[in-house]
Design a protein that fits this description.
eight-stranded parallel beta sheet; 12 strands; alpha/beta; binds flavin mononucleotide; TIM Barrel
Length: about 400
């Protein structure tokens, strides 16, 4: 049993996850593409934004409640969609959805989740659920996934566009972790050194299949065939014409996940999307991709209030969240922190992460002389220019 009194931040959750998971599984979550420059920059970029505190203010009564996609939310955060979660902890998606529902924040379910969208909806009817769509070559699968999400009452559809080329993640290659984990002596040793994970996941719940897809693909019978189907049938190309079709199919909020440029943001708006989740996939795909935070000011300047602008990648602290809000974001999604939290302690771990983040957001708000989220603005931050005179108005 995890003692959460000793877990003070995401780095502590990460260490607890590393102690629970076999190394190749931990590396799959933790790692990034190639030299991991994008991954590191996703963190270091926050050091280039600092606060301009306001001290002469009565901040005794504060609220971090806000509005996300036009609905009240308990905090300006949500959990980003992640595939494979149930390989990190049994029933991980359920744990995340429950923790999010308790805090009234949204949870993004991945196409590659270990639970079907219908089962999750039935298990946590009160949750704010968003469905993340990876697009497949067979349009019948895309249409079926979208209409099932609609039928199951998902609030938003997040179409991920930043994985249009298969990534090169070298930690996974070194660990022999592609479709499944190679049974090398070293990997067997890594697995045997994590008996709790063996008990809970490997022989307990079992490695997950992808039930969202399995309905449409009889060849999916286990974890390996699911991963194989997923990687062999994805459509590595999604354009504005596809987005318009998607817009006609999906009646709820439609967000494009992965757009980072102002010109693309304007175009997806033109196609009828309601918003974007700016993302570089947590530094897992394009090496040296700019951090979404760096691109945020120019995107917000271009689209104004005409679309919902959320972002993810690198958010670990309440202060990080407040920096993005001050620069014009509506909300922030967290990926790896939630994966570490669920591995560290299931639903209680995710709730602990949410509580830590909420507390830090609230504290930061107070230091800035604010009592509500909608009081935040660019006036609250001081932004370094990475390369003076270049690429205005980025960081
Ligand atoms: C283990 C893992 C699995 C992921 N799977 C998906 C996925 O299935 N669909 C998707 O759109 N993004 C996926 N992502 C990306 C996240 O949604 C999110 O963009 C990213 O994790 C944010 O960066 P952060 O981890 O630094 O918070 C995944 C990320 C991780 C770490």
């Amino acid at each position: 049993m995890q003692d959460f009194r000793k877990i003070h931040n995401v780095e502590d959750l990460r260490a607890a996850a590393a102690a629970y998971l076999p190394k190749p599984v931990f590396d799959f979550i933790d790692g990034g593409a190639e030299d991991e420059v994008a991954l590191r920059n996703n963190r270091s970029v926050f050091e280039r934004v600092r606060f301009r505190p306001r001290t002469m203010a009565d901040v005794q009564v504060r609220s971090i409640e806000t509005t996300l996609l036009g609905k009240p939310a308990g905090a300006p955060i949500g959990i980003a969609p992640m595939g494979g979660l149930s390989s990190f902890s049994p029933n991980a998606e359920l744990a995340m959805a429950r923790a999010c529902a308790a805090a009234n924040i949204p949870y993004g379910l991945s196409t590659a989740a270990g639970i079907s969208m219908e089962d999750l909806r039935a298990a946590v009817p009160e949750a704010r659920l968003w469905f993340q769509l990876y697009v497949f070559r067979d349009d019948r699968i895309n249409e079926a996934l979208v209409s099932r999400a609609q039928e199951a009452g998902y609030e938003a559809l997040l179409v991920t566009t930043d994985t249009h080329v298969a990534p090169k993640r070298e930690r996974d290659r070194r660990n022999g972790f592609s479709l499944s984990l190679d049974k090398t002596p070293r990997n067997i040793m890594h697995v045997l050194s994590r008996p709790r994970w063996i008990r809970d996941v490997l022989v307990g719940a079992g490695l997950p299949t992808m039930p969202n897809l399995a309905v449409h693909a009889p060849e999916i019978v286990d974890n390996l065939s699911a991963t194989k189907f997923f990687s062999q049938n994805r459509r590595y190309g999604f354009d504005y014409a596809h987005l318009r079709v998607m817009r006609r199919m999906w009646k709820g909020k439609l967000l494009v996940k992965g757009v980072m440029r102002p010109d693309e943001a304007m175009q997806v708006l033109e196609c009828g999307a309601d918003g974007i989740v700016m993302s570089n996939h947590g530094g897992r795909n394009l090496e040296s991709a700019a951090a979404p935070l760096e691109m945020l000011p120019e995107v917000v300047d271009a689209v104004g209030k005409r679309m919902h602008v959320l972002l993810d990648s690198g958010f670990r602290r309440g202060t990080d969240v407040v920096k993005a809000l001050a620069l014009g974001a509506e909300g922030v999604l967290m990926g790896r922190p939630a994966a570490f939290a669920v591995a560290a302690g299931g639903e209680a771990g995710v709730s602990h992460l949410v509580a830590l983040t909420r507390d830090e957001i609230d504290r930061t708000l107070g230091y800035l002389g604010c009592t509500a989220i909608d009081q935040l603005g660019r006036d609250h931050v001081l932004v370094d220019r990475a390369m003076p005179g270049r690429n205005e108005p980025g960081l």
